[in-house]
């Protein structure tokens, strides 16, 4: 039995046939160099093959790696790929999810060392769409007592806020639900939706929505239905034609 070994990766095969060109036995469906000259000076040290020895390659990739990607370059490429994979994995960090009342949210956001109410993070209203810290206290007593916020943090940075407000005795309404644009696309909305409907279940409340933006309708509507079903919460998905008093 004749065995052939790939000159790049070492893979072996005993499947072969006779070449029509010179009658030599060569691996079946492999690349074989015999009686040709290859000279490559793209990389240092340069690589060359003068045809005085037959070489076999189990794939086009192995042939290219042998003559056009020296071993050190292949190792460097692998290191870069591994680092890219590691960085991609590190980008999705497990966030902390808090359920806060308006007073607790104010304490988290405002700098309590200053009586004039400087923000701890003066970019939060720019980063979190629809969020306005002054609105946390501009509510009716019933609203203030029943309102709560789902807050998403990475480290001490707030990256997402959802406000759930009093609507009627059996029903709470999602006033807004927003993720920092920099952190979108990583599944963080699921963390917030899960916490929001879990809290509604604990409070024995139905959930309805304010009207969606186009982006919200695309990315959030299906999530709200999914997590309402998961937690057994009645979800009243409002349409533009629905009157406010219907629920």
Structure, explained:
This protein starts with a strand and ends in an 11-residue tail after the last strand. It has helices spanning about 60-70, 70-90, 100-110, 125, 140-145, 190-200, 215-220, 220-230, and strands at about 5, 10-15, 15-20, 25, 30-35, 40, 45-50, 55, 95-100, 150-155, 155-165, 170-180, 205-210, 235. Helix 6 (about 190-200) packs across helix 8 (about 220-230). The longest helix is centred in the first third of the chain and has 21 residues, at about 70-90. The protein has 2 domains: about 5-90, no CATH class; about 95-245, Gcn5-related N-acetyltransferase (GNAT) (Aminopeptidase, 3-Layer(aba) Sandwich). The strands form 5 sheets. A 6-stranded mixed beta sheet has the order 9-10-11-12-13-14. It has a two-stranded antiparallel sheet with strand order 1-2. About 30% of the residues lie in helices and about 25% in strands. By secondary structure, it is of the alpha+beta class. The protein contains 8 helices and 14 strands.
């Amino acid at each position: 039995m004749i065995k052939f070994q790939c000159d790049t990766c070492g893979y072996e095969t005993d499947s072969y046939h006779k070449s029509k060109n010179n009658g030599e036995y060569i691996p079946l469906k492999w690349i074989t160099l015999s009686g040709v000259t290859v000279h490559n000076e793209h990389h240092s040290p340069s690589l060359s093959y003068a045809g005085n020895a037959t070489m076999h390659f189990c794939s086009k990739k192995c042939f290219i790696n042998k003559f056009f990607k020296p071993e050190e370059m292949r190792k460097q490429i692998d290191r870069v790929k591994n680092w890219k994979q590691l960085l991609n994995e590190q980008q999705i960090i497990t966030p902390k999810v808090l359920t806060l009342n308006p007073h607790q949210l104010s304490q988290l956001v405002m700098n309590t060392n200053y009586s004039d109410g400087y923000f701890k993070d003066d970019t939060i209203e720019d980063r979190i769409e629809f969020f306005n810290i002054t609105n946390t206290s501009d509510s009716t007593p019933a609203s203030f007592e029943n309102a709560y916020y789902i807050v998403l943090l990475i480290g001490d940075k707030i990256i997402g806020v959802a406000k759930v407000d009093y609507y009627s005795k059996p029903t709470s309404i999602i006033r807004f639900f927003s993720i920092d644009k920099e952190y979108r696309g990583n599944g963080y909305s699921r963390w917030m939706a899960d916490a929001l409907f879990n809290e509604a279940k604990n409070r024995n409340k139905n959930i309805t929505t304010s009207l969606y933006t186009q982006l919200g309708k695309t990315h959030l509507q299906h999530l709200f239905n999914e997590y309402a079903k998961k937690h057994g919460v009645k979800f009243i998905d409002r349409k533009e034609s629905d009157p406010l008093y219907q629920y």
